[in-house]
Amino acid sequence: MTRLATGLLAATVALGVILGILYLGRVRKPLLIILHLLLGAAGIESLFVLLHWTPAGLVLPAGAAGPWAGGLLAAAMFLGLVARLWGRRAPAKAELLLATHAVAGVAGLLVFLSWAARL
Known about the structure:
By secondary structure, the chain is mainly alpha-helical. The protein has 4 helices and no strands. Keywords: Membrane, Transmembrane, Transmembrane helix.
């Protein structure tokens, strides 16, 4: 399950980087955006499964970074959705939200990788 979560989250961030490059070139690919959303949701779901069912039935140590990774990734998903909704009404705010979305997503992946390496 750890490999599945790692693969899904890494693919989500990689696709996000590609979408970011396309966004800077003013190219929109709605199907890739939907795939990015679905991969992110599946990755977050697999992280939450890991939080409740760790390999070999291990109990999470107090203060583990897993919940922090989940929070960052959930915040990234929320910010991405809000940026999409505000895109036409307030482009400057949407771009700030999109940048925050990217930072939260990459930070969430890095915290997850740090936590998953200790499972």
